[in-house]
Amino acid sequence: xxAWKQFTTKDVTITPFIADKGFSFTGSAITSSxxxxxxxAGRNVHYTSSQNTTSGFVYSSSANSIYNSAKQLYYSNxxxxxxxxxxxxxxxxxxxxxxxxxxxxxxxCPRYDNFLQSSLTQSxxxxxxxxxxITTIAIPQKLFGxxxxxxTFEFTYTGSIQFPNGxxxxxxxxxxxxxxxxxxxxxxxxxxxxxxxxxxHSCGLIGRDINTYPAQLNETQINFSSSITIYEQQYKCTxxxxxxxxxxxxxxxTSSDQGFYNNAYYPFVTGSFFEPYVTCVGxxxxxxxxxxxxxxxxxxxxxxxTDTTIMVNFDV
Length: 316
Fold this sequence. Notes:
Elements: E1 12-26, E2 38-43, E3 54-55, E4 61-62, H1 63-74, E5 91-93, E6 102-104, E7 133-138, H2 141-144, E8 147-148, E9 154-157, E10 167-171, E11 176-179, E12 185-190, E13 195-198, H3 206-212, E14 220-239, E15 277-284, E16 290-301, E17 308-315
Antiparallel strand pairs: 1-14, 2-7, 3-4, 5-6, 7-13, 8-14, 9-10, 9-14, 10-11, 11-12, 12-13, 14-17, 15-16
């Protein structure tokens, strides 16, 4: 049988902690249905151009769309300067009255913060030449959780005619993708989005190379760690010494077939030595719906002299 008691705020503790998990995928496993990492080839071409081909393994998109999407989201402030375009300002020409003041010069500036990954001055290069290529690597959220953990992204590409010596790319923890051979910035990674964009030093051609020759996936490996916040819920179930001192089990009545209130307990139940036992704890919401059950490893007697506390812990 069951007994009920309401929690107070001091009985409930919720503690967050961050859990990380490492992943490593090679070859066709990268784009398999249960993984779903996509590799796109973007290109600065007109959308009506014959060069505006589609790319992608999990789902596809046009080269023009991939190029302009990355440009709008991550590089709109870095078109003319690698360290970011200066904010455009206008000059004021005072009038006789405030209503007569006039503004001269540009008053618009880039609208996007471009998802800066560090408080340090960012340096990003965006290829603006006609036909220039970029590579976008998109990790699905089901894998990276809340973000890709900084310093854990690694992309290895070997055996390509375009890259005979292979390519090893890592992130520097500040949102930059670094070439392992010359330690130069070849693109950026956006940790909360699970997206890496390669823009310079021929790395922008990797996506086109892999999409043109899908067998090159066998020469590709991607490593990273995901991060997610888990909340540990702790409920302190306290039974005071004067609570739940008798059992509501109908088998303890002298004649259980005549109704609970018309019967008396057996004599051994009313003795001072009799102690009910706790075998499980159920947690209910405000609508009286059972949301969690904790089974005790062995029955625990409820003391008549001291409080009994059972701690229930689970993670969500």
